[in-house]
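Q: Given only this backbone (144 positions), what sequence would you predict?
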């Protein structure tokens, strides 16, 4: 079964926590996702049924190879979208919420094209400078 947006959020956080700390616990996820531990346990059980994690009651859980692969892609998607929003000049304080709002609504094809665009801008600083000039010009026009 394909993961729901909520399942993707959990897989992404589990993967990131394991990369960061070497493990992920129910309490870590609950704190990180700002949910109750009981909600985390229910989702871990769903992820176990979906073959994304292996869960043993009272012993914890680990990502399956499929879960690791998906987790890596989800973290990449999140980081890429953050980078994209930075490149196009979105205010830093809006980036996290904006990424959370759009990441589940884009196809992997769209993600790949955004990756191409980010690469295009990062390969030549002049391109980003030109974009900032266009943005400044547009802001001036909006204010007048």
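A: Predicted residues:
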């Amino acid at each position: 079964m394909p993961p729901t947006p909520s399942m993707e959020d959990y897989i992404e956080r589990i993967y990131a926590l394991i990369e960061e700390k070497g493990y992920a616990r129910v309490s870590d996820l609950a704190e990180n996702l700002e949910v109750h531990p009981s909600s985390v346990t229910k989702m871990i059980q769903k992820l176990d049924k979906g073959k994304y994690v292996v869960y043993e009651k009272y012993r914890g859980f680990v990502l399956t190879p499929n879960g690791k692969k998906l987790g890596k892609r989800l973290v990449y998607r999140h980081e890429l979208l953050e980078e994209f929003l930075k490149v196009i000049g979105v205010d830093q304080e809006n980036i996290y919420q904006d990424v959370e709002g759009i990441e589940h609504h884009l196809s992997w094809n769209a993600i790949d094209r955004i990756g191409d665009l980010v690469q295009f801008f990062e390969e030549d600083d002049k391109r980003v400078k030109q974009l900032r000039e266009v943005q400044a010009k547009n802001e001036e026009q909006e204010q007048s």
